Amino acid sequence: MPRMIHKPAAQRQRIADLTGFPLSVVEEIIAVHAAMILGDLARWQSAHLPALGRIRVRRGPATRVHQSHLSAGVVTSSETIRPGILRASLKPSKRLSRVLKTLDEVFD
Which domain of life is it from (predicted)? Predict the structure, then answer.
Protein backbone atom coordinates (compact mmCIF):
# COMPACT_ATOMS: atom_id res chain seq x y z
CA MET A 1 0.00 0.00 0.00
CA PRO A 2 1.50 3.38 -0.93
CA ARG A 3 2.08 5.81 1.90
CA MET A 4 -0.16 8.85 1.69
CA ILE A 5 1.66 10.91 4.32
CA HIS A 6 5.38 11.25 3.78
CA LYS A 7 7.47 10.71 6.89
CA PRO A 8 11.23 10.19 6.77
CA ALA A 9 12.33 6.59 7.28
CA ALA A 10 14.16 7.46 10.51
CA GLN A 11 11.00 9.04 11.94
CA ARG A 12 8.88 6.01 11.02
CA GLN A 13 11.47 3.73 12.62
CA ARG A 14 11.51 5.88 15.79
CA ILE A 15 7.72 5.61 16.01
CA ALA A 16 7.99 1.84 15.59
CA ASP A 17 10.64 1.61 18.32
CA LEU A 18 8.65 3.75 20.77
CA THR A 19 5.36 1.91 20.23
CA GLY A 20 6.80 -1.57 19.90
CA PHE A 21 4.96 -2.17 16.61
CA PRO A 22 6.71 -3.47 13.50
CA LEU A 23 7.61 -0.83 10.91
CA SER A 24 5.06 -2.23 8.44
CA VAL A 25 2.25 -1.74 10.99
CA VAL A 26 3.33 1.87 11.61
CA GLU A 27 3.27 2.56 7.86
CA GLU A 28 -0.23 1.04 7.59
CA ILE A 29 -1.48 3.17 10.49
CA ILE A 30 -0.13 6.34 8.84
CA ALA A 31 -1.80 5.38 5.53
CA VAL A 32 -5.13 4.64 7.26
CA HIS A 33 -5.01 7.96 9.13
CA ALA A 34 -4.47 9.81 5.85
CA ALA A 35 -7.36 7.90 4.25
CA MET A 36 -9.65 8.83 7.16
CA ILE A 37 -8.77 12.52 6.75
CA LEU A 38 -9.46 12.36 3.00
CA GLY A 39 -12.73 10.53 3.67
CA ASP A 40 -13.87 13.25 6.08
CA LEU A 41 -13.06 15.94 3.54
CA ALA A 42 -14.87 14.03 0.78
CA ARG A 43 -18.02 13.96 2.96
CA TRP A 44 -17.72 17.74 3.52
CA GLN A 45 -16.83 17.23 7.17
CA SER A 46 -14.07 19.00 9.00
CA ALA A 47 -10.90 17.01 9.59
CA HIS A 48 -8.30 17.32 12.32
CA LEU A 49 -4.77 17.50 10.94
CA PRO A 50 -2.43 16.96 13.91
CA ALA A 51 0.39 19.28 12.82
CA LEU A 52 -1.77 21.98 11.26
CA GLY A 53 -5.08 22.20 13.10
CA ARG A 54 -8.64 21.67 11.84
CA ILE A 55 -9.51 22.07 8.18
CA ARG A 56 -13.12 22.72 7.23
CA VAL A 57 -14.47 22.39 3.70
CA ARG A 58 -17.82 23.88 2.74
CA ARG A 59 -19.71 24.31 -0.50
CA GLY A 60 -21.40 27.64 -1.13
CA PRO A 61 -25.02 27.90 -2.27
CA ALA A 62 -25.98 26.56 -5.68
CA THR A 63 -26.84 29.07 -8.40
CA ARG A 64 -29.32 28.88 -11.25
CA VAL A 65 -27.92 29.59 -14.69
CA HIS A 66 -30.25 30.68 -17.48
CA GLN A 67 -29.15 29.98 -21.03
CA SER A 68 -30.78 30.98 -24.30
CA HIS A 69 -29.98 29.33 -27.60
CA LEU A 70 -30.82 30.44 -31.12
CA SER A 71 -31.13 27.51 -33.46
CA ALA A 72 -32.82 27.61 -36.88
CA GLY A 73 -34.53 30.88 -35.98
CA VAL A 74 -36.07 29.43 -32.81
CA VAL A 75 -35.01 30.72 -29.41
CA THR A 76 -34.96 28.12 -26.69
CA SER A 77 -34.04 28.74 -23.11
CA SER A 78 -32.95 26.37 -20.43
CA GLU A 79 -32.08 26.57 -16.79
CA THR A 80 -29.40 24.56 -15.08
CA ILE A 81 -28.21 24.48 -11.51
CA ARG A 82 -24.51 25.03 -10.96
CA PRO A 83 -23.06 23.66 -7.70
CA GLY A 84 -21.69 26.19 -5.23
CA ILE A 85 -18.06 27.17 -4.89
CA LEU A 86 -15.87 25.13 -2.56
CA ARG A 87 -14.42 27.03 0.37
CA ALA A 88 -11.81 25.71 2.77
CA SER A 89 -10.74 27.28 6.01
CA LEU A 90 -8.03 26.27 8.44
CA LYS A 91 -8.14 26.87 12.16
CA PRO A 92 -4.44 26.58 12.96
CA SER A 93 -3.16 24.57 15.89
CA LYS A 94 -1.43 26.45 18.72
CA ARG A 95 1.96 25.32 17.44
CA LEU A 96 1.29 26.51 13.90
CA SER A 97 -0.17 29.78 15.25
CA ARG A 98 3.10 30.47 17.07
CA VAL A 99 5.10 29.79 13.92
CA LEU A 100 2.86 32.07 11.84
CA LYS A 101 3.05 34.81 14.46
CA THR A 102 6.85 34.58 14.51
CA LEU A 103 6.98 34.75 10.71
CA ASP A 104 4.65 37.75 10.75
CA GLU A 105 6.97 39.53 13.20
CA VAL A 106 10.04 38.68 11.11
CA PHE A 107 8.54 40.03 7.86
CA ASP A 108 7.00 43.21 9.34
Answer: Bacteria
Quote the pTM value.
0.39
Residue 98 lies in a domain: yes
CA pair distance 31, 17, nearest whole angstrom: 18
Q: Contact, 63 vs 82, CB < 8 A?
A: yes
Q: Residue 1 domain-assigned?
A: no
Pairing state of beta strands 86-92 and 53-59?
antiparallel
Domain with residue 60: its CATH number is 4.10.520.10
Q: What is the chain's pLDDT, residue by residue, as a tens digit (108 residues)?
A: 344 455 677 787 887 888 888 888 878 877 777 777 777 777 767 777 766 677 777 777 888 877 777 767 777 777 778 877 777 777 777 877 777 777 677 665
Over the range 25-53, which residues count as b (16 or more CB within 10 Å of their CB) and which as e? ebbeebeeeeeebeeeeeeeebbebeeeb
